[in-house]
Amino acid sequence: YFRKEVCGGTHGNCVCGKCVCEPEYTGTTCECPTSNLSCIYEETVCNNAGSCDCGECRCKKGYIGIHCENCFLCDNTVCDIPQYQACAECAMKNKKDECPESCPEIKLVNTLDNIDRSDICTITQADGCLMTFHIMTTDASIVMLVRKTSTCPESVNAMAITVGVFGAVVVVGILLILMWKICITIFDRIKYSRFQEDMKKLAQRDNSFYEGASAIYRDPIFDTD
């Protein structure tokens, strides 16, 4: 069976318990094409960085991709190659034997502090943790240094933040009320002081509309008028 089909379906026929493949296919289950058309990349077989085996590219060390089109150290974009994540993740899970064959030699390390930060690749995982690794060359080989543990952000205490924000709002509100009360008190005192000054000035000023009271006393005996 190949892909849940006897002899790959249209790739061949089962005769006496064995697959008899069509001319275009080979293998015990007719799983492999005899041509290398599926391995052609820009008119080259596996980008000249690997060999075509059973219709698939087997890349040399340092190259990854369906057609070995991505080189680990050919430019400064090594951190942008998606396959790096798979190589680093399988290494962190202690499953280096299950890593893709295109992965370089992988070494787990406790720290990458001795590596220049600009040469360290950082990938954000699904859980928000950061996975870091570095690609280096030793003689003619390529080695991938993967930090054993991920760096995870500290969990946020939502209750503490809520209480803190509420407390800050209350304190600010109280301060604003006190400031308003102080301003009103000062304003009232100024107005009252001006009122007292105006009353003093009014008391000292002559009022032309007001004439003081006068009294006339007459004696009926001596008054001859």
Automatic annotation (TrEMBL):
<dbReference type="InterPro" id="IPR057243">
    <property type="entry name" value="Integrin_I-EGF_CS"/>
</dbReference>
<keyword id="KW-0812">Transmembrane</keyword>
<keyword id="KW-1015">Disulfide bond</keyword>
<keyword id="KW-0472">Membrane</keyword>
<feature type="domain" description="Integrin beta subunit tail">
    <location>
        <begin position="79"/>
        <end position="157"/>
    </location>
</feature>
<dbReference type="GO" id="GO:0016477">
    <property type="term" value="P:cell migration"/>
</dbReference>
<keyword id="KW-0732">Signal</keyword>
<keyword id="KW-1133">Transmembrane helix</keyword>
<dbReference type="GO" id="GO:0009986">
    <property type="term" value="C:cell surface"/>
</dbReference>
<feature type="domain" description="Integrin beta subunit cytoplasmic">
    <location>
        <begin position="181"/>
        <end position="225"/>
    </location>
</feature>
<dbReference type="GO" id="GO:0007229">
    <property type="term" value="P:integrin-mediated signaling pathway"/>
</dbReference>
<dbReference type="InterPro" id="IPR014836">
    <property type="entry name" value="Integrin_bsu_cyt_dom"/>
</dbReference>
<keyword id="KW-0677">Repeat</keyword>
<dbReference type="GO" id="GO:0098609">
    <property type="term" value="P:cell-cell adhesion"/>
</dbReference>
<protein>
    <recommendedName>
        <fullName>Integrin beta subunit cytoplasmic domain-containing protein</fullName>
    </recommendedName>
</protein>
<feature type="transmembrane region" description="Helical">
    <location>
        <begin position="158"/>
        <end position="184"/>
    </location>
</feature>
<dbReference type="GO" id="GO:0008305">
    <property type="term" value="C:integrin complex"/>
</dbReference>
<dbReference type="GO" id="GO:0033627">
    <property type="term" value="P:cell adhesion mediated by integrin"/>
</dbReference>
<dbReference type="GO" id="GO:0005925">
    <property type="term" value="C:focal adhesion"/>
</dbReference>
<dbReference type="Pfam" id="PF07974">
    <property type="entry name" value="EGF_2"/>
</dbReference>
<dbReference type="GO" id="GO:0005178">
    <property type="term" value="F:integrin binding"/>
</dbReference>
<dbReference type="InterPro" id="IPR015812">
    <property type="entry name" value="Integrin_bsu"/>
</dbReference>
<dbReference type="InterPro" id="IPR013111">
    <property type="entry name" value="EGF_extracell"/>
</dbReference>
<dbReference type="InterPro" id="IPR036349">
    <property type="entry name" value="Integrin_bsu_tail_dom_sf"/>
</dbReference>
<keyword id="KW-0325">Glycoprotein</keyword>
<dbReference type="GO" id="GO:0007160">
    <property type="term" value="P:cell-matrix adhesion"/>
</dbReference>
<dbReference type="InterPro" id="IPR012896">
    <property type="entry name" value="Integrin_bsu_tail"/>
</dbReference>
